[in-house]
Amino acid sequence: MNPEIVNILYNFLPELTLSLTIVIINILHSLRKTSDTGVYIASITGLAAALVFSLLQAYTPMQSAFGGLLVLDHLSYFGKSVSLSAILLIALFFFRKEHSSNEFLLIPAIALSSAIAVSSSNLVLTFISLELISISIYLLISGCGKLSFRYFVYGSVLSGMMLFGMTILYGVCGSFDYYAIGSFLSQNPFNTLTLSISVILITAGIAFKMYLFPFNFYYPALTEKIPLRTFGLISIPLITVLSIMALRFYTIAFHDSGDFASESTAYSFVAGVKWDLMYAIIGTISVLAGNLVILRQYSLRKIFSFLLIAQSGFIILGMASPTISGTEAMLFNVLVFTAAGGGLFYCLRILEEEYQITELASVKGLGKSNPLLIIALVIFLASFAGFPLTAGFPGRLLLTPELLKNGFAVPAVVCVLSSITLLYFIFKLSYSAFSTGINSDLKLVSSFQKVVLIVLIFLVLILGTYPEPAISWVRFCREVFKAQIL
Question: Whole-prediction pTM value?
């Protein structure tokens, strides 16, 4: 066989595996005698195999494919590994064999689209992959009546705005390729107003899909109407994928290749478009709004949704730090978000399914009967707050100096104040949970659930106390930009 074909097949093993999984599930669908158990096993097996292949390729040398449509580098392998880990975790612990087989078809479809999105270096392919994810989400939430219809309409409008912005950018630069766009903007004059309008429209579409405030008003209300498994599937993996996709697009497409930075760790961007300032503002507002609103919420799902909005804003603040170290901080915070977010969703699953607890007030007394569950919940929340010894603390230490170095003191201060607000909420939750209440004598969580909680707690604490291996990995991934554009 041609060595080039073998090389392409090897580098696309995760995508090929997910594609094959979708085909197999469709075949199983057509066999009416086949139970949903076969579909469930096929979906989980395909996700696990794709994740293994992504991890095996983590240190494969960078190369492009299909005429530059896709870039197979360390950043794309990082994105695939993290997003597939989140999707597999949700599929294993939240989905059951008795659930609709159609859902098991959408899970690998979302995973495949995510793998393409983090590797794309072309606006057309990026838009298609993101819309495939959106279509899967619309199908998953279709049972919510008017709310799902409104979400679909609003999402379609924002997708149209993003597509219009991409079209304007093509009109300015004559290409959809990230590198060609950067090259044109670096070497040719352009209309700053036109380019700014394009960037604003594209950013609005990305911000909606990342649930950033104030672009997505329906997300918190939607989370109360959909199943918990859908809530998790449309949250953690999507925010992770959009973060990496946005990092690649803005850093490469607006890089000024004609300018040689005096500081080797700083990116140089074309003048006239302050997208880093734009993301600093959006990220700051999201962090502030998300962490403040939870103080007035009583539904656990709404509290979790606003926490995710705040964390999405915190991740995107790494875009406001146009340096190699800022990229490192952003990628590390993506890891933290995936680990702690997954832990929070698992705690929420136990609260809802085992104890039918959906309101904050109903947690009272639960700490006396199930201390491990409440301790795990507190640790995961503390990680989001950046408390020392948790995974969020090194992320804060990496990002805050970069924000200050680049003149964004307000976002840095807001992050600190928001962390204090979240710590106050954690104190209230802990005080209520360990007080005497109606839940003081509830049954203990199962042994399997204890093991899962302990593993997730260990992961969050090890990232906080010994972050060097994770930092080394993200530092290796960030070298993609250093090699290509510095």
Answer: 0.89
Rounded-to-integer distance, Cα 251 and Cα 253, Å = 6
Cα separation, 347 vs 426, in Å, equals 14
**Other C-beta atoms lying within 10 Å of the C-beta of residue 427:** 11
A 10 A CB-CB count for 473 gives: 18
Give the distance, in angstroms, between the CA of residue 257 and the centroid of all CA atoms in the same chain.
29
Q: Are 80 and 110 a contacting pair, CB within 8 Å?
A: no
Let me know the angle formed at the C-alpha of 136 by 14 and 308, rounded to the nearest 5 degrees: 90
| Count of CB atoms situated within 10 Å of the CB of 274 | 13
Q: Say if CB 132 and CB 251 are below 8 A apart.
A: no
Question: What's the rounded Cα separation, in Å, for the pair 19 and 111?
Answer: 10
User: Tokens 């158990």 map to which residue?
Assistant: 37
Taking only Cα atoms into account, the Rg of the chain, rounded to an integer number of angstroms, comes to 22
Q: Which of 72-81, 183-192, 262-271 has the lowest mean pLDDT?
A: 262-271
Asked whether the beta carbons of 284 and 278 are under 8 A apart, the reply is: no
**pLDDT tier, 260 (very low <50, low <70, confident <90, very high otherwise):** very low
> The tokens of 228 are what?
């918990």
Is 5 exposed, middle or buried, given 0-12, 13-18 or 19+ CB atoms closer than 10 A?
Answer: exposed
Provide the pairing of β-strand 70-72 with 63-65.
antiparallel
- Sign of the CA dihedral 207, 292, 384, 95? negative
Helix (H) or strand (E) holding 71: strand 70-72
User: By the 8 A CB rule, do 89 and 112 touch?
Assistant: no
Whole-number Å distance between alpha carbons of 120 and 80 = 12
Q: How far is CA 404 from CA 184, 413, 462, in A?
A: 31, 9, 27
The average pLDDT across 178-186 equals: 85
Q: Average pLDDT, stretch 388-404?
A: 87
Residue appearing with tokens 């606003």: 306
Burial label, 296 (beta-carbon count in 10 A; 0-12, 13-18, 19+): exposed
CB 116, CB 125: distance < 8 Å: yes
Tell the residue number behind the tokens 């199983």, with chain if given. Answer: 28
Structure tokens of 224? 């109360």
Both tokens of 424, joined, read 């106050």
Residues in the chain, how many? 486
| Token code pair at residue 334 | 């993506």
Handedness of CA 75, 77, 78, 83 (dihedral sign): positive
Reported in sequence order, the residue ranges of 153-262 that DSSP labels E, i.e. its strands, are none
In the chain, where the domains are located = 143-485
